[in-house]
Write a structure and sequence with these properties.
Number of helices: 20
Distance between the termini: 52 Å
Number of domains: 2
Strand order of the largest sheet: 2-1-3-4-5-6-7
CATH topology of the largest domain: pyruvate-formate lyase- activating enzyme
Structural class: alpha/beta
CATH class of the largest domain: Alpha Beta
CATH superfamily of the largest domain: tm_1862 like domain
Radius of gyration: 22 Å
Largest sheet: 7 strands, mixed
Strand content: 15-25%
Number of strands: 15
Length: about 500
């Protein structure tokens, strides 16, 4: 067929309810697959035709997704196993595995490629266990281009495959240095942005929940220089540094999203956006000139913000950065040190949160229970700190060992129990299994996390502060959220 696409990129669906349970209906986000759109732009720029199926936004089940993949009849099918952060990708593999098997059942000759965070973390296991033909380790852009050019497999860096019953692979590809030049195009046109199909995190839009579906997300940098033990990001990038797109490139993407698609809320999914003022200042200044009045969220670190001047934070606020995601993690300095979170303590955390609030920026602050060294006392210390800081919307997590993290390698070495299926890595799923510590069982930690969630979000002081700042509708939204009880296999539900 003359119009047969060279490649179809697939963002997996069919697992949303399994990952979030009843929270999936109104309270979880529906993220646009930025990485798939970036890959699509790269493929088109290099002269190949590309199609994109976002099965997640359409909430297609596995059979529906498989039927549409077959109907689109591309020469190659690449499943892009990317959530917005590396630690959220393992649960996607439950649907990916099912889809691969279903596709091979429908058409044994279909050529399936797996690329993304999880395949990079476990390339050998993925190529052995899944009904796919090829696995790409690393960022994947040039390896995918090599496959499209029909280069010999043994000449394509980052490629894993089976040959004669044996697993073969090449050294991983080098990372792209010139992001602005080589990854200049994003195929926004292949995503259903205009219809308001995507949905922001509920906390990010508490001030205007009625516009929650005018939403997009984007990277403006790749990588992270830090080595947190619970993070899997380096499995894909293989290095500890940040590479930036130019501020001009980032502003062009904001122009497209705001002007062409009416986007009002943008989540900057950079692992660490608030890092280099030479990167974030020009973007903020450009946004101020444009007067889009976007509602923006970005990731920040306690120690980096501690070194910032308050005027830098106020500039970001004026540019639309109404939210930071801040990895506080623990109220115990000893626990933080074991997690390689940097040299800061509770006084530093208090100072930084106060500075952020002084600038008028709200926080989705991350807290973790069950980090190595945690006890009942240190977990309570963390919860007490969360109450004291009274952030607009904390996220409470249990510590897990995502594939590609240092904790995962330690768990394998020490025989620590890990989930027996990929959904066991999803924090809100029925099957979720966190790590245990020396003094706390996995069930102890999960029970404490769920208790902490309810204790915080049902606290009258907190609810009053939400109503005062964001209005009655925001309070009612939070109250409705806390009425949903997650079922937990580990806790006997």
């Amino acid at each position: 067929m003359a119009d047969r696409p060279n490649i179809l990129l697939v963002n997996i669906g069919g697992t949303r309810k399994k990952v979030y349970q009843e929270l999936s209906k109104d309270f979880s986000a529906v993220e646009p697959p930025f990485w798939a759109a970036l890959v699509a732009g790269f493929v088109r720029k290099n002269g190949f035709t590309v199609d994109l199926l976002d099965a997640n936004v359409r909430n297609l089940d596995i059979d529906e997704t498989a039927a549409e993949v077959i109907a689109r009849n591309a020469e190659l099918t690449a499943i892009i196993v990317y959530g917005q952060q590396a630690n959220t990708c393992a649960p996607l593999m439950a649907g990916v595995g099912q889809l691969c098997r279903r596709l091979k059942h429908l058409n044994k000759d279909i050529k399936i490629i797996l690329t993304g965070w999880h395949p990079s973390a476990l390339p050998e296991r993925t190529v052995r266990e899944e009904a796919c033909d090829l696995v790409i380790q690393g960022e994947g852009f040039y390896p995918l281009l090599g496959i499209l050019k029909k280069e010999p497999y043994d000449k394509i860096p980052g490629l894993w495959w089976k040959e004669g019953g044996e697993v073969r692979h090449n050294h991983r590809a080098k990372n792209i240095e010139n992001l602005t030049g080589e990854l200049s195009d994003v195929a926004w046109d292949l995503l259903p942005l205009a219809g308001g199909n995507y949905r922001a995190f509920n906390w990010m839009t508490l001030q205007s929940l009625e516009t929650r579906n005018h939403y997009a997300s984007i990277f403006t940098s790749l990588g992270c220089p830090y080595k947190c033990t619970f993070c899997a990001i380096h499995a894909t990038f293989g290095e500890h540094r940040i590479r930036n797109w130019s501020p001009e490139w980032a502003l062009k993407q904001f122009d497209i999203l705001a002007r062409d698609y009416g986007v009002k809320h943008i989540n900057l999914i950079d692992e660490l956006y608030v890092f280099d003022p030479k990167h974030y200042r020009p973007i903020a200044e450009g946004l101020l000139q444009r007067e889009y009045k976007l509602n923006l969220c970005a990731f920040a670190r306690v120690d980096r913000v501690d070194a910032m001047d308050i005027e830098e934070l106020k500039l970001l606020k004026r540019a639309g950065f109404n939210w930071f995601k801040l990895g506080i993690e623990s109220g115990s300095t000893d626990v933080l040190n074991k997690a390689h979170k940097g040299k800061y303590d509770k006084e530093c955390i208090r100072r930084v949160v106060g500075k952020i609030h002084e600038a008028g920026i709200d926080l989705c602050a991350n807290f973790m229970f069950g980090l190595p060294g945690d006890t009942w006392e240190t977990m309570q210390e963390t919860l007490n700190l969360a109450f004291e800081l009274n952030c607009a919307f904390p996220s409470f997590f249990c510590t897990m060992a995502p594939p590609g993290s240092e904790l995962y390698d330690d768990a394998l070495k020490n025989g620590t129990p890990l989930p027996d299926n990929w959904l066991g890595y999803a924090q809100q799923s029925y099957e979720f299994l966190p790590l245990h510590t020396d003094t706390l069982s996995a069930a102890d930690i999960l029970r404490f996390r769920d208790y902490a969630f309810n204790a915080y979000f049902q606290n009258p002081r907190y609810l009053a502060s939400i109503e005062k700042k964001f209005g009655r509708g925001a309070r009612e939204h939070v109250e409705a959220m806390t009425k949903i009880k997650l079922k937990r296999k580990l806790l006997g539900d």
